[in-house]
Queue: 3 jobs
Job 1
Amino acid sequence: MDNLSYKALIVEEPEKNKFTREIKSALVNDLPDNDVLIRVNYSSLNYKDALSATGNRGVTRQYPHTPGIDAAGIVEDSQFAGVKKGDKVIVTSYDLGMNTSGGFGQYIRVPGEWVVKLPKGLDFKQSMIFGTAGFTAGMSVYKLIKTILPEHGKILVTGATGGVGSLAVGILSHLGYSVTGVSGKTGTTLLNDLGAKHVISRDAFLQNTKPPVLKAQWAGVIDTVGGDILATAIKSTKPDGVVTCCGNVASPDLPINVFPFILRGVSLLGIDSQNCPMDFRSKVWEKLSSEWKFDMLDQIYDEIFLNQLDNKIEQILKGELKGRTLINLD
Ligand SMILES: NC(=O)c1ccc[n+]([C@@H]2O[C@H](COP(=O)([O-])OP(=O)(O)OC[C@H]3O[C@@H](n4cnc5c(N)ncnc54)[C@H](OP(=O)(O)O)[C@@H]3O)[C@@H](O)[C@H]2O)c1
């Protein structure tokens, strides 16, 4: 096993701040010295992977590096109690693919604490259609529906055709919520197919953003983009509404004042999937694999091989991808 060679997408920095991506052979022996060796069957592409693959030091400090924050596969070797050779497992939303060689390689070696048994009710593919994006959508939904019920009114999802957004639309619609998506894409039926009742174009949504509060419309919001869109969503949330915030593809800034919070009692909840404790993590996966597993799940992904990743990385950075992209590592 030690000298086994495997294929991986390797990002290198041949000269300062110039990055290359190539599929190369790597040695299992050179993987980090952790407890559990996993043969990866599927990974998935997330926005963060594209940042890692293009040299973003906020995500990955050192190169050469193999990105891939998600992996599903079979345990080849384990020194960790409770995880044994042959177990079907997933690893998502930890340091995998950031500063630990990730799921865009056929093998990973990770700390046993990161390993989650493949939830009953999901196969490898479905676990990666969810992946970190679905887990993040799941955390957001979990927090939102604690206080917001379908009868309280409409839920807004931003970045709605993206990974986190599309999965949030699918889960909430399946649970009986009336969902409105904000999207920069035109001419796609994805959101309606997922059960969204309304779709608003990004431009229309951002037409009147200046006043400190706007017409109250949303009982809840799942935001995946930040910036003006999140600020506008908060300003148009109904009294006692809940807004979750997980991403910054539009901007890390939040141009807003305190009025929606002190005049309407709006709550803003942060979502951090990477540091999610195992008991909450297990609860979210249990929901995703059972009562939140919606019918369209198997129809919102493209399956590609390692050698097709390059183009998809460019597309996700431009916000052009819809739904989820799975990487088949067999
Ligand atoms: N906090 C956490 O634990 C956590 C976990 C996972 C992901 N995230 C973050 O969540 C965000 C979404 O991740 P993802 O994997 O779903 O990404 P994704 O698949 O690339 O989806 C992002 C979507 O946002 C919209 N968008 C893109 N550029 C935009 C812009 N300039 N302004 C407004 N909207 C834009 C697009 O959807 P439309 O065309 O439909 O508008 C795009 O498909 C990222 O920032 C990611 O880093 C955070």
Job 2
Amino acid sequence: MLCNEAVKRIDAVSIISLVSVMRNEEVLADQHRELDRASAARIKKLLEERAQGKPLAYITNKKEFFSEEFYVDERVLIPRPETELLVEEGLKILEEHKEARNIVDMGTGSGAIGTIIAKKTLKEVLCIDISVEALRVAQYNARRLNVSDKTRFLCSDLFDGLRETTTFDLVIANLPYVAVDEWDGLMEDVKRFEPKTALIGGKEGTEIYGRFIERLPNRLAAGGHVLCEVGGPGQAESIGAGLRAKGFTVVSRRDLSGIERVLVGTWTHSS
Ligand SMILES: C[S@@+](CC[C@H](N)C(=O)[O-])C[C@H]1O[C@@H](n2cnc3c(N)ncnc32)[C@H](O)[C@@H]1O
């Protein structure tokens, strides 16, 4: 098998499968198959890109999230497995509050959260992002998952593009939360290839969430919920405190690594 020492075997198999339009199992079962020159050259080029650190998801333009295949490229953050917890919590709230109708996926990126929520609940989800390029990817994913009729897309800085009176029953946010000083410590693949605007949340990392929380009380219907993904050191405490200071009841959920990853806020006041 054409391979490159610097590339993990499983990644190499995915790249060969992509180019030769075979399933991974077929590639593994037929390792002595002859490849035409064009395919071999293309595989070599992609293996080199992978060896230089380009994430596999950007090479194959595929990432599995919540058992669905999403299209991704460098316009969007690659959905992370820990974000599935955010979706699980959202689905739980929507199961308990069947009356909930107005749902927003804030910082939608590839649309991973909003499209899964729409697909699983058949409720309409408004997907907001400040990046028009990310929204194009999210819209494409909504078509792929057959939820175009259940998703709407808005290019906006947080809630700014909405009418002042628009409120929501559930706001799910995965906004950037990396601090400027943490940037150097991120993995090279992330720094070189993923969109910085999807990761950096300001000097402290919590500035975008700070602006978001400031606007939240006017945006939630009575009894509404907000879910925030967090992860930097001390962020569950600081962002949780910000939500409590605005009058939210807050609990946190830990991911599989034991990190407080999702804040669940309940708004019991009227907006
Ligand atoms: C951490 S990524 C999350 C992407 C996706 N929701 C996911 O979970 O994989 C953050 C997203 O928030 C968007 N974003 C950053 N600042 C924003 C703002 N002020 N208003 C709306 N979206 C913003 C970025 O463009 C990016 O797509």
Job 3
Amino acid sequence: MTGRGDDGSRSVDLADLLDLTDVEAAALERLDPMTLGYYAGGAGEERTLRSNRAAWAELDLWHRALVDVSTRSTATSLLGLDLPAPVLVAPTALHRLAHPDGELATARACSDAGVPMVVSSLASTLLEDVVEATSAPVLLQLYVGRHREVAEALVERAERAGCVGIQLTVDTPVWGERHREHRTGFHLPDGVDVVNLRRHSPDVGAPTTGGIGEILGWTVSPTITWDDLSWLCGSTRLPVLTKGVCRPDDARRALDAGAAGVVVSNHGGRQLDGAPATARSLGAVAEVVRDADPAAVVLVDGGVRTGADALRALALGAHAVQLGRPILWGLAVGGQAGVARVLELFTSDLDRTLALAGCASLDDVTADLLDPR
Ligand SMILES: Cc1cc2nc3c(=O)[nH]c(=O)nc-3n(C[C@H](O)[C@H](O)[C@H](O)COP(=O)(O)O)c2cc1C
């Protein structure tokens, strides 16, 4: 059932949304053009953005017949944590553009579902408040930019707040060129800010108020190298995952530098346009990581929208997948309840897909599901 809200937008009955495509369509109807351009857009011609989705669908799933799947589990463990399903919320900036409760709504939905949340350095809510709002594990996504002391301060805050890990984003020597943001005049509306970074602005002589352009300028830096990863791994007791890797040799270097694993990601098609779809880069990366260190973690994100996509990712060697935009669509549609609906749709679809593929647990998800010949 749908009707008209006070603001003229169509209100949505979450029960009518049957998959993540439905949630996206409902969100597109509701979001203002500026937020929509920022959330939905990719870099350049958006080739990688499109191929992220398409490449998962190209992988057939060769199901096993006549397997007893009456008792099933999607449970897994990751970084020493027991999780109900192999899914995390990817770090995405500025949740308060989608809903006034922003990251707090996301964190509460994660709490109910037991799904870990990776909080962006560009979050619009203080990291400490997000951790406080959820009983689920929280990781900090970090950019190491011009001023190492900002990264240092954020890591210290993450450790103190009780975060369980860090994802260091490594695909942003500079920002990708996202035409949609220019066309819609992306800016920070009143009351929405990158509060975690802003807190450290005075320490590095950066503006404490004003537009996002300047703050984004010192958030990332083209001078960042493997030495920075080694430094980070040596300066925190938290496990560090390197987010934004597509090459096996880079994955190997990340482990050599002390990383606990990698996130195969192209930033949702927002950085290098032309980077391979993650469904195409994942397999080779996972193989190298497994050979180098069987305990290391491999996550993947980019266009993951269905249980079948998750199954494909696991069969290619990932330990879990991350959801980016679908979480923002859920927030836009219904705040905490909208994010909860996204997580519920995704995990129940994964459970059904497991059964249909003839797998009773994630241990049964092996490479032959993609090609038994
Ligand atoms: C609006 C938006 C903001 C994002 N912000 C960040 C960020 O602050 N840090 C980061 O490492 N990745 C960021 N990402 C990338 C996501 O973590 C993730 O890699 C990507 O969204 C996955 O693809 P998907 O959106 O197709 O699921 C952002 C993505 C979007 C769409």
